[in-house]
Structure formats: C-alpha cells, structure tokens
Amino acid sequence: MHKAGLDGYLHPDEIASNLPTKNPEASGMLDRMLRLLTSHSIIKCKLVKKYTSNALLTRAYGLTSISQYLVQARDGPCLVPYHKFNNHKELHNCWYKLKDAILEGGVTFQKAHEGITFFDYLEKDTHLAELLSHAMDGSIATSMAILLQTYRGFEGVKEVVNVGGAHGATLSCIVAMNPHLKGINFDLPHIIKNAPAMPDCQRVLHDWTDEESVKILKKCHEALPDHGKVVIMEMIPTELPENDAIAKNTSQVDIHMMIFTRGGRERTAKEFHMMGRKAGFASSELICRADLYGVIELYKKM
Length: 302
Fold this sequence. Notes:
- 43% of the residues lie in helices and 15% in strands.
- By secondary structure, it is α+β, with helices and mostly antiparallel strands.
- Strands 5-7-6 form a 3-stranded antiparallel sheet. Strands 1-2 form a two-stranded antiparallel ribbon.
- Strand 6 (283-290) and strand 7 (293-299) form a beta hairpin.
- Helix 3 (80-86) crosses helix 8 (126-150) and helix 8 (126-150) runs parallel beside helix 9.
- It starts with 11 loop residues before the first helix and ends with a strand.
C-alpha cells in the first residue's frame, strides 16, 4: 500500500500476493481487518471493479496521512515500534495484576514479574529495551517538529544537554531547527552506545516520584550557569480532566506510568512549578502547549 502512494488503492488479493503466505483465506481475512481500520479512519477504502467491466464492485484500500506513520519503510517518524511496545505481551500481563495492586498496594509491573522492577527488567530483556528506545524516538519525533515551531526558547541558548535522551531523536530535532546550538545527549551507557553521531533531555521526570524528580532537578540546578534554565517538555494534563484526543492520550500514558513504575506520573503545570521551587529554582513558567506536549521553563535566577 505504501508503494502505491497516497492516491493508490489495492485490492486485498493484491496485498496478499505480496505476503509470504499460501493461505487461500488470507485475502478475505485481510479485507476484514482493513475494513475495521477504515472504520477508525486509519486507512481509506473505495469500491472498484476488480477484473472486468462486468465484475462486481469490490473493496480496495489505500493509505491516509495517518496510516503513513505506521509504515516502517518510509522516511521520517514511524509509530510502529511505539505500538509494538505498548502491545508487548510482557506489558499486557500487567493489566491482570492492576486490581491486586489497587487493593494490596505495590507496583503492578512487579506483581506481574516476580518482584522485578520495570527498569531492571529492561536490563534483562534487551529486545524490549531496544523496542522502548525506538518507540520513544518515533513518538517524540512526530510531535517535536510541531512543538519546536511554537516554542522559541532555544534561540538565545548556546548549549543544550538532553538528560535521558535515549538515541538522540529529541536532540536531533532541536539541533536541526536551532543549528547554532551545541547539543549533548546524556543517558545510560547501554543506551548511548547505540545512539547515532550528533552534529557538533527526553521525557525523564515522568518515570520518577516527586522526591526523585526534585533530586534530578537539584542536580540540574547545580550544573547550570547563573542565567541557565531547565526546559521541561512533557505531557502536561490540565487540572480539570478534558475529553479531547490529547487529554485521552495523556491520561493513558499516566496510567502506564502508574502500572510500570513506583510513583511515576504525568504532572500538571502547578505540580512542576512546586517541584521547581523545592529544587531551588527562582521561578518557573508554562511557556506553551503544542500537540501532545507542553513546555515549562525553570530559571536558576530571576
């Protein structure tokens, strides 16, 4: 479907013929799956004459601007790793322990994995860890270009350090749109070793408790020059829950943090301001919101 382009349509028979299958029912099964995706506006469908002018009209399917992000072969951001990670069996197993965690206390992920923490499990399961890194790269890249068109806070900055930057997708976007910057990508050694070279920090705080997040911010405060600032780019829920697509996505991720971590969560702007004060920052400001993310700046001095 990707090769057919945005204007192209393929019949399920044509799609099945390009798959490594001898199943005679593959075409019909694909048709039913694609019809479901069409009902959610992920792909598009139209009726076409399959073989001759006398043939009955049959369904043919094509990509939309949304489904392009589910194509691994395309240039640009891809959300396939993100969906593979969120639907991984080791993560799905956690949902069966959520009731126990609510009634008994404890971390849901650890109840489903014999007491092993999420991050310790990632060290053991390198495939899942790599999938998470690529998932973060793809999901961040889809939103970062939009966010950086709105946020102009890097224009007067000389150097930026991305704390917990994974493979460097966020920093790559920032430096590409702000070529005057010197970018430094900071993460754990087993992650950084797979990061691509950068020309001469990715959502970290939501993994940790308030106390741990304040410790991280204190370290940032110590490392900053007097007129430096910390730029927080996170999903920032509103105080009163809303029901639009962004609010739903943010709340879903917040539940994931509740299940996978001890104390990790998505925080409101008010909560970030309070943590900034506890970490020693003189002031803070919610600068903007764009797509899924908001930007909060913490200033070392007024």
